[in-house]
Sequence to fold (925 residues):
Amino acid sequence: MRKKRLFAAAIAAVMSVSMLAGCGQKDATGENLVFEDATSSAGANQTGSADNETASDPNGEKPTDEGYGILREANTSTIGSLNPHTYINSYSSEQIKRASVALYTYFPNEDYTFCDLSGELAAEDPIQVDEEGKVWQIKLRDGVTWENGDALNADDVIYTWKMILDPKLANLRASNFAKDVIEIENAMAYFEGSCAWEDVGLKKIDDLTVEIHTVSKQSAQEIMTHLAHPANVMVNEEYYEKYMNADRTETMYGTSADKWISAGPFTVESWTNDAEIKFKKNPNYIFKDKIWLAGIDVKVVEDAGTQMQLFENGETDYISLSTDNYVKYQEDPRLLTAPYNSVSHITINTANPDQPILANEKFRQALFYATDRDSIASLTYQEPADYIVPTTHIIDLENGIYFRDTEEGKANEYENNGYDPEKAKQLFEEALEETGIEKVSLTMIYNDTGVQVTTSEFLQQNWPKVLGEDKFELKLQSMPSSQRGDQMRNWASDPTCYEISWGGWDSTDLMPWNAFKYWTSYYSAKNEPFISEEFDKIFDDANSGADRFDEGVRLKEVAEMERLLVDDAIIIPVTQNTYKYLKSDRLQLTMKNWANRVGYGWDYAKIVE
Amino acid sequence: MVRYIINRLIALLITLFIIISIAFCVVRLMPGSVYEMGGDLSQTVIDALNAKYHFNEPIIKQYGYYLENIFFHWDWGNSAKIRPNVPVFEILRDRIPITLEINLISLFGAIPIGMVAGILAAIKKNTIVDHIISFMVVVFISIPSFIFATCLQYFFGFKTGSFPIIYDVSATGTARYASMVLPILALAFDPIARVARYLRAELAETMNSEFMLLAKTKGLTYAQSTVRHGLRNSMVPLANIIIPMFANVLGGSLVVETIFSIPGMGGLMVDSINSSDHMLTVAILVFYSLISLITILIVDLSYGIIDPRVRMGGKK
Fold:
């Protein structure tokens, strides 16, 4: 009996200790955190993060060659490859940029408030050679080297270009170079094997000058934007060839640390695939004076809870917050927010023969007006969006003008963020009458994780309330993201593959006219059946039309493309997400606010112990 | 016995060939093209990639190329998405060791603990010791390993800082093993409980059998009769559960590996299917099938070694 009591007491003690240990949040020192009242809004946080000066920084006024402090990151994504010609996900491309040099890139501007698109390997902006604006020369910096000290010159640039377009290698990223912002003469023809390399519009003029011939008239900014793409960074010929297979169809370049060489801000010190990559400041980098850090340690941590523990334990320097964690930390002074570069929207399969009402414009408009974006935004901690072009998109880079701030952009926005239940009901009744359908039952496919769950479930309840529960029903079917994407892209061969779903393209925020490619009839990964000659023509005009550089032309074309998609409810914009970060105190940002392309500039930050 | 082993090996190879064929066809017939991934790829590039890897040809021709590459070049294909251009077996080679290490340590640690617990529970049947062990067995079996993993990580990693929160790939020596302690513990609870429960039941039954009574009447002490007869007879059926446990070892633990950021085999299959990395998926399926077939073979052969009656039973 006594033994039993002792045992019970021991169990109780263990449980009590465990429960007490589990209470409260703690900071890196082990003390429980006491959250202070938020002194700034999310927007103000964007400007308040780097206000502290760097007096305590042991590097002094200027970064040393070795740098100081290690930035510690954790991310859910893995880095499949550092080969810029074959990488798959955008996270890999971020790591490639860290350890590579491009002709042009986005730096923080002088006062660290905005991005500055300028030459990295290129010594200056492209020089227009012909009157038509189709031939451009790029002067390279003298004295640029790889991490091993070998010179990097025009031969490396030409080799890089030749390899990305190599027909036998058939690189995944070939079209990112051949035809995106600019179209290079005969580049795609060479890739397809229908012309010789000499016919391609890429020439070496001398050791420090290369020349690009384009199909259409281009601007210097377009050339620079195109060449700043992560797929177009330089590759090293010696390493690229060393790891090439015998029949030259594949190279293992960039698949492990020993098969990679850097010329960028950082070198790869070590890399355990799918687990950890360690970068070290490259003392040979051209702009080493912009880099304060001694290195960056990136860990792959797939579990969000584990990431949070690592951050709270002081083992990582910043963390991207999930919506659940954001709720807990929204008053935290360490919080940083930034606008997301895409708008989450509902994609409609108007060609689905099982749901002919989806082809009815009034019905789609009814769904548009029945969508309570404010409520969804407050539920999911996002911004309501009745537009397609996100607030991040810049229509005039030189003057820093955002599309949404222009008159044309504002004209495309609706009252009450497009929520008008009465109008929705009226349009719905008219659509039923036109189609002769008595009751609509739709199925929405959505991702089984993230805010899509919350949003879809909200719409399942809210749409019938607005449109009439006896006449409208929304069924939900969840599936993994990749499976949903495959299913949607199948619409051409199987029009019944889906009815409505979710979309949200990440797009080029400095070129909103280019972002509309996703809705052109010729986009390869198109996942909805919208085909419009009018839309295609405006897109082509905005991207390669002769008068696109005339003042206001592009702005009007972007506004018109957005209007065509939203007015006819080809898609239904719902929300624009925001990035939410927590930043440790030892990490001091040099950026004074979030900015396009450079974000908060983690790589340019300082470590202050 | 040699002929029996040869027969079983031939059957294994035929089964493996059938599995390869089915796996290849099923994976290649899954909806979704390898290179239609919603990115900025032009149709020209997608077509070129499909032509390069023969994905644009009939499935039977693709299968022919696949077998030709395996038999004549020992080339099982390259990963298309997870690690582009890297041979699939190189990916497995990188992932298997850490999964094996953690799971084997966990298993080899669990077996003796489980056996001691099982023996104690059996010889102290219906006492407080038996009740405590049985309670722990129920707890360890009914609570999934990822719950233990989360709790261990939270209390011993995050709150007390006794061990690293995640597995540290770059650590060496003691630090490396310290970062393996929590995942090993999380994975050990289940096998400890299974071995203890099985052994307790077997040993308790054996202890009550007539030959044990005979052993005691012949003058053996309680300890002698338990170790020499009771335990030995109870071990034979225990082999049935311990050997298949090794097959699971290679599979890793999807959730435990995710929680502790272990770059093992756990999530590889799911990742490869989700990303339509077909060659990698087939390679993983073949690898697991091979391990399962070998395990079955070893179990079958071990029956004959442990208990000759099984081997001789088939003879007329």
